[in-house]
Amino acid sequence: MLNRRGFSKALGLGTGAAAVSLTGLQGLQTASAAPRGPAAASAVPPVTPGGRTAFPQVKQIRAGLLNVGYVELGPAHGPAVICLYGWPYDIHSYIDVAPLLADEGYRVIVPYLRGHGTTRFLSDRTFRNAQQSAIALDVIALMDALRIERAVLAGFDWGSRTADIIAALWPERCKALVSVSGYLITNREANLKPLAPKAEYAWWYQYYFSTERGRLAVEDKTQRHDLARLVWDTVSPTWDFDDATFERTAAAFDNPDYAAVVIHNYRWRLSLADGERRYDGLEKRLAARPVIEVPTITLDAERDPFTAPGGGASYRDRFTGAYEHRTLAGVGHNVPQEAPAAFAQAVVDVDRF
């Protein structure tokens, strides 16, 4: 458990190829780079994405710098799974995944990130920082507040990055890892170098946010709503979601700190905004691209424009423990909401490594 002293150390004051169908697991093959454990994982039942529309009541808890909003499903004393989303999404990315995992006996926690939903900063004076180590420490603080010593961490987009960081820097807190798009820990120096034009094109909004026009758009409720909807449409081209599905998530963007957090996150990644010096030690360690030793399943979505070619080869060397890579056929960026059974199955499987 990361106590007050441990939290200070964490801030740098001390040491510190498979094909899966859209909704089910037909034709699943695995490429394992390390032996699996003796226990066989149960099969998660197929579900139709979007079959559920509501979570249980959102809970609140003080954790670190925040009053965190989160939903919790499953038995209170079950093994913990923490599910993390990215931009422009919210907890509803796990609307179908969380019940599936709860039915498998897991205690499932899905928190709102800083700047989203009902999560609030405890102090008006706190810098609305969204650099990668700060967000990772939010999750560590939440685990402490909920008295969760270790958890399976599962995420996509910002959520993959956050889970990767915890697995790399605090492996004692991460029992196993499911990471969409693989190794996403940010190296800001590497980010200064141009990518191939097609890859740069996919990141258009990252550069938009570096401008004053982009900042004003995110601050405007209507503009940010329409911008997020455009991103959903383009990065998940095969996902047949309805307006109500998007609106449930868009409500989380009305947080008063949403614009500041989103803009800072993308500008920080491009070295256009500073972080905070108290996180310098952690960022130095992350810039060295630390390996991840905990059991891991990485997922690549076939129709996600951000999926790198090569079936995970570009990041394979960053995972040194038990490992599998799976490609999800016909799936776009929002993997847990587009293919909930496949995502939940990865969690169950990696927990048995």
Question: Key terms for this structure?
Answer:
alpha/beta; 11-stranded mixed beta sheet; 11 strands; 35% helix; globular
Task: Walk me through what this model shows.
35% of the residues lie in helices and 15% in strands. It has 14 helices and 11 strands. Strands 1, 2, 3, 4, 5, 6, 7, 8, 9, 10 and 11 form an 11-stranded mixed beta sheet that branches.
Instruction: Please indicate the percent range of residues in DSSP E strands (runs of 2 or more).
Output: 15-25%
Order of helices and strands: HEEEEEHEEHEHEHHHHHHHHEEHH
The percent range for helix content is 25-40%
Q: Could you list the spans in which at least 5 consecutive residues all have pLDDT below 50?
A: 1-10, 12-39
Largest sheet: 11 strands, mixed
Radius of gyration, in angstroms, nearest whole number: 19 Å
Show the helix and strand layout.
Blueprint: H1 4-13, E1 19-20, E2 31-32, E3 59-63, E4 66-73, E5 80-84, H2 97-103, E6 107-111, E7 120-121, H3 132-145, E8 151-155, H4 158-169, E9 174-180, H5 188-191, H6 197-202, H7 204-208, H8 212-219, H9 221-235, H10 243-250, H11 258-269, H12 280-287, E10 296-301, E11 323-328, H13 335-338, H14 340-350
Parallel strand pairs: 1-11, 5-6, 5-8, 8-9, 9-10, 10-11
Antiparallel strand pairs: 2-11, 3-4, 4-6, 4-7
Helix pairs in contact: 2-14, 3-4, 8-11
